[in-house]
Amino acid sequence: MSPEKSIFSKIIDREIPATFIHEDEKCIVINDINPKARVHLLIIPKKPIATLFDLTPDDKDVMGHMMLLLPQIAQSQGLDGFKTQINTGESGGQEVFHIHIHLLGQ
Ligand code: AMP
User: Fold this and answer.
1) pTM of the full structure
2) Is 29 left (phi over 0), alpha (psi -120 to 50) or beta?
3) Which of ligand 1's atoms lies nearest the C-alpha of 31?
4) What is the DSSP letter of 58?
5) DSSP 8-state assignment for residue 65
6) Nearest Cα residue to atom 5 of ligand 1
7) Among all residues, which ones are annotated catalytic?
8) Is residue 3 very low, low, confident or very high in pLDDT (cuts 50, 70, 90)?
9) How far away, in angstroms, is 50 Cα from ligand 1 center?
10) Domain count of the fold of the chain
11) Residue from 98, 104, 92 nearest 34 by CA
């Protein structure tokens, strides 16, 4: 049985709305619905990897892609500095089990 589709997969498939900042073949970037900073974006791979614990060597490309995208996206938002966060596992504060990088800037 396939696992339930994550809220982020539903956003990727346009089943629920979100404000898209960027999309390419590997990932999307959206506004966080509950921003903790003036700029609070989520970088989300299209591949539904649940947590950092679930990464395999096959995921190096998409993870590297998202890391390279972070400073470009930050600059496109007028930021000259930013914070990133990846919550991992329930005890790590993760609520949505589809890997995402928080990008926060003031
Ligand atoms: P985490 O605790 O790292 O799993 O963070 C999940 C993040 O997803 C939180 O910051 C939520 O505000 C955000 N979030 C949940 N649902 C949505 C949504 N429909 N659109 C945008 N962001 C969302």
Assistant:
1) 0.97
2) beta
3) 21
4) G
5) H
6) 95
7) 100
8) low
9) 14
10) 1
11) 104
Answer yes or no: is 1 within a domain. Answer: no
For ligand 1, is residue 96 a contact (CB within 6 Å)? yes
Residue 40: predicted pLDDT: 98
CB 53 within 8 A of CB 89: yes
Note the pLDDT tens digit of each residue in 86-106: 999 999 999 999 999 999 999
Pocket lining: 56 vs ligand 1, CB cutoff 6 Å: no
Is the C-beta atom of 7 inside 6 A of ligand 1? Answer: yes
Residue range 45-94, pLDDT digits in tens: 999 999 999 999 999 999 999 999 999 999 999 999 999 999 999 999 99
- Say yes or no: CB of residue 39 within 6 Å of ligand 1: no
Whether residue 2 is contained in a domain is answered as no
Tokens of 77: 């938002």
- For 53, the domain range is 7-105
